[in-house]
Amino acid sequence: MTSESLVENDLYVNLVERYSDMVTRICYVRFNCLADAEDCWQNVFVKLYASKEMWQKSEDYLRRWLITVTLNECRDMHRKLFRRNHYDIDKLVIAHIEDFDRSLLHAVKALPYKYSEVIYLYHFEGYNVSEISGILGRNENTIKSQLKRGREMLKDVIENE
Which NCBIfam families does UniProt cross-reference here (predicted)? Predict the structure, then answer.
């Protein structure tokens, strides 16, 4: 292995370590099956590996790119999975998000996807309405409405638990 490929390998490993939890949480919010979430995670990081030009982008740009790729990959996989039978697993154990509040994540997961993805990006990843609008390609007023409705639904889910 050349020194250049060792440097590239180290850079890629550092990027995976830095963004792994974020991508894992997004995938977990989308899927009810840990194996499907892991497959999605893997596809995202394969795409990152293939897009070496992204490795040199600013942290904010790369983070947004990864979120967009992850959401798109989740949608693509969900379309494929919709056609096959799988079972809902209520109590998943995810080793790499120990510090994450699983009960709140479970409540967010219980929401319809269009609300859970907006709530997740706003409250867990810290994006504002205009940034979410750009990432998801939706109107800002739509994002505001989805946040409002999602919060109302989340409140009901939490109160019912």
Answer: sigma70-ECF (TIGR02937)
As a dihedral over the C-alpha atoms of residue 154, residue 85, residue 34, residue 14, rounded to 10 degrees, the angle is -110
pLDDT of residue 109: 83
The label of the residue with tokens 């497959």 reads 39
Number of structural domains found in the chain: 2
pLDDT in tens, 60-92: 999 999 999 999 998 888 777 555 544 454 444
What integer is the mean pLDDT of 42-64? 93
* Domain enclosing residue 70, as ranges: 1-93
What's the pTM value of the predicted model, to 2 decimals? 0.64
> Quick one: the chain helix, strand, coil %, rounded to 5?
80, 0, 20
Dihedral, CA of residue 120, residue 92, residue 90 and residue 104, to nearest 10 = -30
CB contact at 8 A, 122 and 58: no
